[in-house]
């Protein structure tokens, strides 16, 4: 038996108590900060736009006389000014900052200072990279509702759905909370949708946060804990290399929960962009995963390089440059499948 095989055999019985950690690699500085205008009343905004369109329509046709053209222009200008004032009344300004962890980027808002009544809508407004700020989602950093936590992080995917947690997002939130003066202890207990997690900050010479270490807790392997409808036959009841029919294509997945559901697919070579974009969403929304799944395609690094390569398709956000909880899930799944 090889040394690696012996290590796996010894480690497997302890999987239920293994603690996965995200070290503070590539924790981005503030990429941008500013304020975004958000509609208070979507119906009012739509009415204003509809009225503006109806006013502009006559002006778009050729005018019969110069006098008629001047009258139409004056009317349009006045109407536009009124509509702009009406639309402005229906908007508010929301300050934000933007961080990334390993390229996994988020718009962050101080929920102590700002009330966000519809965070799912805000996430859909700010996340598009062409028409919004551009991010993998929205994070609210605010007061905890759990007495055992120092503060709370809520995360909303690009499609507006709320996720349980995000490892990279939590690192970004911790840096934001500390450097904005919201909470200034180097050890933090943070409330998430997956429970209270422990964080440790490493500070630089100027007092800035250089790295964040997150204790992600033990992996959950039982199918009901992932959750998945697949039948588990592996250690601790885990689904290891279980078959999933993705529109006529059989895919073997290993399922792990790090407080949020993950499906890991192993391959002999790095997954192509086309396969990632085709198979990723099919698995993320597959009926085998009642709450959806974050899908990760794992391959080995070139010979002589230890470790694995992970490419992710996240439920609610699509392709992302990294996934912290997914990296932990991929490491656990690789051990389970002896990859």
TrEMBL record:
The keyword Ribosomal protein does not apply. Residues 71-84 have a biased composition (Low complexity). Pfam families: DAP_epimerase. GO terms for molecular function: diaminopimelate epimerase activity. The keyword Cytoplasm does not apply. Keywords: Amino-acid biosynthesis, Isomerase, Lysine biosynthesis. It is an enzyme of class 5 (isomerase). Pathway: Amino-acid biosynthesis; L-lysine biosynthesis via DAP pathway; DL-2,6-diaminopimelate from LL-2,6-diaminopimelate: step 1/1. PROSITE patterns: DAP_EPIMERASE. It catalyses: (2S,6S)-2,6-diaminopimelate = meso-2,6-diaminopimelate. GO terms for cellular component: cytosol. It comes from the Eukaryota. Residues 52-89 are annotated as: Disordered. GO terms for biological process: lysine biosynthetic process via diaminopimelate. Its EC number is 5.1.1.7. HAMAP family: DAP_epimerase (MF_00197). Belongs to the diaminopimelate epimerase family. PANTHER family: DIAMINOPIMELATE EPIMERASE, DIAMINOPIMELATE EPIMERASE, CHLOROPLASTIC. This is diaminopimelate epimerase.
